[in-house]
Write a structure and sequence with these properties.
- By secondary structure, this protein is an alpha/beta fold.
- Helix content is 38%, strand content 15%.
- It has twelve helices and ten strands.
- The strands form three sheets. It has a five-stranded parallel β-sheet with strand order 6-5-1-9-10, with helices on one face. A three-stranded antiparallel β-sheet has the order 2-4-3, covered by helices on one side.
- Strand 3 and strand 4 form a beta hairpin.
- The N terminus is likely disordered.
- InterPro entries: Dullard_phosphatase, FCP1_dom, HAD-like_sf, HAD_sf, TIM50.
- One of its GO terms (molecular function) is phosphatase activity.
- This is FCP1 homology domain-containing protein.
Length: 292
């Protein structure tokens, strides 16, 4: 497969397995959530819930959506072909992000923006919320956004215990207009990172978490609908299904339960590895592709 074709497949394969795996883990727990009044009790119960076996994940996801599973495997296969990041480029992208008071020891949750928290519509009439983007030239562009169900609730809940950031491959002028609508007083989202902070590998913008110089990788997760965005830190990545306009979507609600459990783990990468098994899938892409 050519790099160009593979890149196209990557962009089409951003629907990953969070929905199926997370729901699998929490299936027997959710019925009791309403009666759980102590957050510590809930975290302990989530943490003690066993994760499904690798073969169960493969069977479940491929059975639900065979085409989707094939695209996921192609995405992981493509990630393995990416060349290492040039140290000079990494250095030029690096940032030192100051922590807010009371969050000095908190873990960091980073959200992607488009198709993770919101969906942008070029025609404002097709969106629930019109916004105006001021381009660097001074020109004004009117667009609209739809906000994913439970996005604000998720940010509000998680911001109580975690440092929240947004890292987008979009331009700053657009992202700031959207985030100023979502979080007008900058209360929920501590830091914003943009395309200028991504590393550019053969025209693909990748969110290398090493650009944040004063955070430890064991304490950072990145939620993104595009797997290639966390290509260089696969075990820090949490995949989420792309969202466009489904008002019945519950991805962020489901995911919030898992994210709450991370506050009591030493290394988030261990929990992610055991839950999502992306590394194991990546190691077996060729064999699995031959079976789907």
């Amino acid at each position: 497969m050519s790099n160009k074709l593979a890149s196209v497949n990557v962009r089409r394969s951003v629907r990953i397995m969070d929905k199926h795996i997370t729901r699998k883990i929490l299936k027997n727990l959710r019925a009791q959530i309403q009666s759980e009044k102590q957050s510590k009790q809930l975290k302990a119960r989530i943490a003690s819930t066993p994760t499904p076996a690798f073969c169960e994940i493969v069977t479940q996801v491929s059975h639900v959506n065979k085409e989707y599973f094939s695209q996921l495997l192609l995405s992981l296969k493509y990630i393995k072909t990416l060349r290492p990041v040039d140290n000079h480029q990494l250095a030029t992208k690096s940032v030192h992000l100051r922590r807010r008071p009371l969050y000095e020891n908190s873990k960091t949750i980073i959200f992607d923006l488009d198709e993770t928290l919101v969906h942008c519509c070029e025609n404002p009439q097709e969106a629930e919320h019109p916004i105006t983007i001021i381009l660097p030239s001074g020109e004004k562009l009117n667009v609209g956004i739809n906000i994913r169900p439970y996005a604000l609730e998720c940010l509000i809940t998680l911001s109580k215990n975690y440092e929240i950031m947004v890292f987008t491959a979009s331009h700053k002028c657009y992202a700031d207009a959207v985030l100023d609508f979502l979080d007008p007083h900058h209360e929920l989202i501590h830091h914003r990172m943009y395309r200028e902070n991504c590393v550019n590998i053969d025209g693909i913008y990748i969110k290398d978490l090493r650009v944040i110089t004063n955070r430890e990788l064991e304490s950072i997760v990145l939620i993104d609908n595009a797997a290639y965005c966390f290509a260089y830190q696969l075990e820090n990545g949490i995949p989420i299904v792309s969202w466009y306009n489904d008002k019945n979507d519950t991805e962020l609600l489901d995911l919030a339960h898992y994210l709450n459990s991370l506050s009591c783990v030493k290394d988030v990468r261990v929990s992610n590895r055991d839950t999502f098994r992306l590394g194991l899938l990546s190691e077996n892409t060729e064999a699995l592709l031959s079976q789907v």
